[in-house]
Amino acid sequence: MCQRILAILCTTLLLTGGGLAAAKLLQNIPLVWKPTDNLASLGPLNLGGPVVSTALHVDTLVDTRSNPSLIAENRENLDKPLPVTTSGDVAAFVTDHLKDTLHVAGLNVVDGPGDMTLSGEVRQFFVTETSTYHSEVSVVLHLKDARGKEVWSGVAAGDADRFGRSYKAENYYETLSDALLRAGHNLLSSPAFTDAFSHP
């Protein structure tokens, strides 16, 4: 009887291990905007005057990460980490949703030339999955006036954590989107950034 139970347990472990080993890798998945937060839920913003009246053009950001397609990694098994790669354009994705966040906050974001221009680099856009999903987004930004003079530079960063089923695209989408939304909120919460709009 004991031998039979032992045999069943061994078979179950082998099948389970085989299933994990054969897990379909999340490769070349699209980028999907799926935040679980919204701008208002992250706290009030004190915006007004030149910040909302100035025409702001946002240049497409540059992705300076060493591996542009890699956006996440499951590290529950340190001996066999599972990568997550995207076929999407991370720089364009971050640019579009940063612009949307600024627009929703009340800034006068324009497609054509503006009174000021925001440009920068994506330095981090990544989710580490262990027992939870943890995302980090970091963008180095430069604000210039109409003459091209830099009036502010700094980092907009955000992170997010959530629980979820292991190695699921939806959870990566949600944590990356929340971190990017928080990076935008943190940028708008920076007095140094908002004060720069009063630059003569």
List keywords for this structure.
single chain; 9 strands; 200 residues; elongated; alpha/beta; nine-stranded mixed β-sheet
Description:
The radius of gyration is 21 Å and the shape is elongated. Helix content is 32%, strand content 32%. Strands 1, 2, 3, 4, 5, 6, 7, 8 and 9 form a nine-stranded mixed β-sheet that branches. It is built from five helices and nine strands; from the N terminus they run H-E-H-E-E-E-E-H-E-E-E-E-H-H. A hairpin with a 7-residue loop joins strand 4 (70-74) and strand 5 (82-86). The model is unreliable at 1-21 (pLDDT under 50). The protein has 200 residues and is of the alpha/beta class.
Measure the end-to-end span. 86 Å
Please state the average pLDDT score.
90
Radius of gyration, whole Å: 21 Å
What low-confidence regions span 5 or more consecutive residues with pLDDT below 50? Answer: 1-21
Strand content: 25-35%
Helix and strand composition category: alpha/beta
Total helical elements: 5
Largest beta-sheet characterization: 9 strands, mixed
The general outline is elongated
Number of strands: 9
What proportion of the residues is helical, as a percent range?
25-40%
* Sequence of secondary-structure elements: HEHEEEEHEEEEHH
Secondary-structure blueprint:
Blueprint: H1 2-21, E1 26-29, H2 50-53, E2 55-58, E3 62-63, E4 70-74, E5 82-86, H3 90-105, E6 108-110, E7 116-129, E8 133-145, E9 150-162, H4 169-188, H5 191-195
Parallel strand pairs: 1-5, 2-6, 2-7, 3-7, 4-7
Antiparallel strand pairs: 4-5, 7-8, 8-9
